[in-house]
Amino acid sequence: MAPYRLDVISLAPQAFAPLPEVGVIGRAFGAKIAELHLHNPRDHAIDRHRKVDDVPYGGGAGMVLKPEPVFAAFESVPVCSRRRVLLMSPQGQPLRQVDLQRWSQEYDQLVFLCGHYEGFDERIRSLADEEVSMGDFVLTGGELPAMTIINGVVRLLPGTVGTPESLVEESHSDLLLEHSHYTRPADFRGMTVPDVLRSGDHGAVALWRQQQREQRTQERRPDLWNRWQQIKNQTTPSP
Q1: CA–CA gap between residue 77 and residue 220 (Å, rounded)
Q2: In this structure, what CATH number is given to the domain that contains residue 30?
Q3: CA-CA distance, 124 to 93, in Å (whole number)?
Q4: Secondary structure (3-state) at 198
Q5: Rounded to an integer, what distance in angstroms lies between the CA atom of residue 3 and that of residue 122?
Q6: DSSP, residue by residue, 88-112
Q7: For the chain, does the N or the C end have fewer beta carbons within 10 angstroms?
Q8: pTM
Q9: Mean pLDDT of 1-13
Q10: By residue range, what is the domain housing residue 122?
Q11: How many CA atoms lie within 13 A of 163 on its CB side?
Q12: pLDDT tens-digit readout, 126-163
């Protein structure tokens, strides 16, 4: 099977240098589960100064990323059969775990468009299939959001995580937050491991963990709890 292909269009490709070298994600790149390709629009600038930005029409503060170098960099990227193009933007849809799951399962290639300066020339948006935001805040560029998505997608690819079952009940996999975890010692400074986890009763442990997930979600993320309740009520058969 061919590696999952990740193409990043960025003015700061050096920011991605640590990714293939760190932890589980780095090992996934080393094992050819995924491969990372970096494309700098500055390499495609057509003037002798390799200019990639310009002042905005109509005036205003800041500089705007020009379309020509970005389009040229984008058009240099090989096209896989199942490709999705993501534009990193604070105007995009907030990133969710279900997005990472969808991109890891339905596509073989992700292309990331990372902005800088005051923003993109609006015509660059026409290249994207989706616009993605990390939240209601603004960063200096799209590199950190792109690295976040790369991490989240690669860890879901088959072979990356040694125990795939660990991905099933983690936070946000089904809207609920993850239950608490404990390891040895059973008593640490007066803080003890719940008896049920040491009981050997797998059914009781599973029930306790589910109750923990529901309680934590209700207390910490009532927005997720309400969504989970709605879905649960829709899928529960009527008596």
Answers
A1: 42
A2: 3.40.1280.10
A3: 17
A4: helix
A5: 32
A6: EEEEEEEP-HHHHHHHHHH-SEEEE
A7: C
A8: 0.87
A9: 96
A10: 4-154
A11: 5
A12: 999 999 999 999 999 999 999 999 999 999 999 998 66
